[in-house]
Design goal:
Blueprint: H1 3-15, E1 24-25, E2 34-37, E3 51-54, E4 60-64, E5 71-76, E6 94-99, E7 104-112, E8 120-122, E9 126-130, E10 141-147, E11 150-152, H2 154-157, E12 172-174
Antiparallel strand pairs: 1-12, 2-3, 3-10, 4-9, 5-6, 5-8, 6-7, 7-9, 7-10, 10-11
The structure holds zinc ion (ZN).
Zinc ion is lined by residues 37, 48, 50, 52, 142.
Amino acid sequence: MKLASLILIALVAFASPAAIAATARGPICDTRARVGSTTYYSCSGSYHGALDMSNGTCNSWNHRGMLVGSRYYRYYGGCGQSCSATSCNGGAGNYVVVSGSNGWQFRQLHIGANGSSGSKTCDRCALGLVSSTGQSYGAHVHADNRRYGTRMTAWYTSVGTTCGRSAYCGNVVGNPTL
Ligand SMILES: [Zn+2]
């Protein structure tokens, strides 16, 4: 094989690392935490394409990173904290993004900020308060797995997550691609 071809192959391999499946557990370390929305809002409304998870409390220090293993959670803030909907960051409220390869992202939305909020690398540490910042009616954690901005659903349907499933931090709720 010519050297130029080998270099090209090496460049392509470097620029496009293979996407891998991560493991996501529930974000709330309270056995009352449940999945309240999946493919559809409230499980029967309009299209949602993500998991909404709540334990029925607001402003508890319990919004944890969901991905097993050390990950960089990039924080987008400026929304404070709220137990009712706010118009902030395009409806996302305070949120974190874990970026993978080839346009894949994993996001967790509606975080309530406090003094410890910010970008961090950690393994399922608390990221903030379970809150309702952004377009959120009732405090909860929204989690989505997007590719180039399009929400995917196979990451949670593949592990059998449906409405009412436990969103406790010990339970796997999905295998997002990153
Ligand atoms: Zn949601």
